[in-house]
Design brief:
globular; mainly alpha
């Protein structure tokens, strides 16, 4: 998320976290949505980098990465609770 700036990363992270929590039926608040989106984007960018997929430093690319990463984080958190 270095290519889009801190404020943009928070906005994109918040939107991606909100979309992921809605998609995965998770009951999370605004702050956790932002954290899920930003951390999710970092994780997804790393995982996609391992398989050779690179998102350009754009809002849409980071939004997709944040959505995928946040869904992965929600899935892992649910699996660890069981």
């Amino acid at each position: 998320m270095t290519g889009i700036g801190i404020l943009a990363a928070i906005i994109v992270g918040g939107l991606a976290g909100w979309a992921a929590s809605s998609l995965m039926k998770a009951n999370t608040g605004l702050i956790l949505n932002i954290v899920l989106g930003i951390v999710g984007a970092l994780i997804a960018n790393f995982l996609f980098g391992l398989i050779g997929v690179s998102f350009a430093p754009s809002w849409i690319g980071q939004g997709v990465a944040g959505l995928v990463g946040a869904c992965i984080l929600i899935f892992v958190a649910r699996a660890m609770r069981r």
